Amino acid sequence: MPDSGLLATALEHAARGWHVFPLRPDDKRPAFPDHPADRCTLTDPRCRAAGRHLGWEDRATTDPTRIRRAWSTRPYGIGIACGPAGLMVVDLDTPKTDTDTPPPPWADAADGVDVLAALAHQHGGTIEPTYTVTTGRGGSHLYYRHPDTGPALRNTSGSLGWLVDTRSHGGYVVAAGTTVTGRPYEVALDVDPAPLPAWLAGLLTHAPRPAHRAPVVTLPVDRHGAYVAAAIRRQLAHLTAAPNGQRNHALFASAVALGQLAAGGALTDADVTAVLEPAALSIGLQPGEITRTIASGLRVGARQPRKVAA
Questions:
Q1: Is 22 exposed, middle or buried (0-12, 13-18, 19+ CB in 10 A)?
Q2: What CA–CA distance (Å, rounded) separates 168 from 180?
Q3: Which of 35, 188, 242, 300 could bridge across to 247 with cysteines, CB 3.0–4.6 Å?
Q4: Is 231 exposed, middle or buried (0-12, 13-18, 19+ CB in 10 A)?
């Protein structure tokens, strides 16, 4: 049965300019699409209309008509796509078990809140009041406005400090008004999101993205090698030109295309990884995501081998 309260809350979030999408009832996982990129057959109506796989970030919206249509069918939870919403959300967690103890740099910290406070002190910054949500497990989500200038910030997982993650482009958060395994996410401070503190933005941007290195792949100096080299260049150009929200799908498509050549004997799977991994890192995809997507693309490409004429 639909939940009028969840519908009203989803509309309230959208009225702030936050792009929302349905989560499975009482769960953190997106409700749509119901298939991964490597299994997209374009039978899903949204994928078919776009002519490509559409993930949750592409489907997130502020359109009241679409929101009413979705939340009038089931009691979906509410996800907020941070990138399209122009948000950087700092996720401050609590220890999951009694044995989850802080590593030496954070020996005096009890949770992510303490770690963020220590980081602010170390870098001469402050933590200004901002829109805050208490999570189902007692942690906190601090919502900040993504900087208007500079690189698009993406997700981090523990790189800032113990129990401190961030979500922005390519990431989402469970919105207030949603429950996950019976535990509610609730607004703790209802104010407009503050600008992301400069000291925190600096920590998130100080490490440059890995440079796009030339792939270490040895090809024969003949027509065969020239054809494969040209195919590699096309796929790298396709991948590095992909806009936000489409980069993982572009990586998958390139892995499929080069995976077909690998299945035909022109390359090896290791060659494909060596070619695509540095480029994917350079556009901001995360290592685990890259590994999974390339592996999926290679599996699909292997089903349709392409041999290169001598």
A1: buried
A2: 21
A3: 242
A4: buried
Hey, what's the torsion of the CAs at 22, 27, 28, 29, to 10 degrees?
-70
> In the chain, where does the domain assigned CATH 3.30.2250 lie?
86-168+184-207
| Cα–Cα distance, 80 to 97 (Å, whole number) | 28
**Does domain 86-168+184-207 bear CATH number 3.30.2250?**
yes
Task: Tokens for 270, please give them.
Answer: 């290791």
Q: Which residues of the chain have pLDDT under 50?
A: 207-208, 210-212, 214, 221
State how far the Cα of 286 lies from the Cα of 279, in Å rounded to an integer. 11
Q: What is the pLDDT of residues 129-145, one digit of tens each?
A: 999 999 999 999 999 99
Tens-place pLDDT, residues 158-215: 889 999 999 998 889 999 999 999 999 999 999 999 999 999 999 988 644 544 454 5
